[in-house]
Amino acid sequence: MPEAKILVVEDEKALVKVLKYNLEKAGYQVVTANDGEAGLSAFHEEKPDLVILDIMLPKKDGFEFCKTVRQVSQTPILMLTARKDELDRVLGLEIGADDYVTKPFSVREVLARVKAILRRAADKTAPLMLRAGTLEVDLERYVIKIKGKPVTLSPKEFEFLKCLLKSDGRALSRDELLEKVWGYDRSMEIDTNTVDQHIARLRNKLGSEAERIVTVKNVGYRLRTD
Ligand code: CA
């Protein structure tokens, strides 16, 4: 979800600046608030996809913010905690945060958490069944069927098929496929030939539906959904 909107609620201006700069650089839309009350107004007005929330805040602290938001929304919340006793409360209480990072944190770590949380959130709202022709993919049970008959795929083959189906006919480059299937950081270390090998095996297993996977010259692959 590259266009996701993130609300940063934090009273340390320097930290807000660093987070905003780096999140925007990573392709997110960023709105900020410097205290808990302004944060709640921004939350209702901006409808962010994720909130990065400091705990010690003027007016309304992060715990109160979290509780208030959870009464009306399941929007993911990443907590920033500065002290051990805060962390104990985050972990010990059912305040409804999705994850936390402890201060001082690296920007890289925050970005990784944000990405992981948004990915989980997207998976939750995505449809559980994908279809193309006689091909049927049950994302919840990890079952593939062709003309009603189950086909056994390796986990990576399954992920490839899922990515292709989800892209809705759009061509995916080998790099994109690597990133989606192996995760961004590891994609650098994996040869793009690996993609071709997996696609070849996947085509083999898809039998009568193999031709749905189309090689797009100089780009990668796409899946015919007609
Ligand atoms: Ca603070």
Molecular structure report:
The protein has 226 residues and is α/β, with parallel strands linked by helices. It folds into two domains: 5-124, Response regulator (Rossmann fold); 129-223, Winged helix-like DNA-binding domain superfamily/Winged helix DNA-binding domain (Arc Repressor Mutant, subunit A, Orthogonal Bundle), CATH 1.10.10.10. It is 45% helix and 22% strand. It has helices spanning 13-25, 36-46, 62-72, 84-92, 107-125, 155-166, 174-182, 184-187, 193-206; strands spanning 5-9, 29-33, 50-54, 77-81, 99-102, 129-132, 135-138, 143-146, 149-151, 172-173, 213-216, 220-223. It has a five-stranded parallel β-sheet with strand order 2-1-3-4-5, sandwiched between helices. The protein has a four-stranded antiparallel β-sheet with strand order 6-7-8-9, covered by helices on one side. Helix 6 packs across helix 9 (193-206). The radius of gyration is 21 Å and the shape is elongated. Calcium ion (CA) binds at residues 11-12, 54, 56-57.
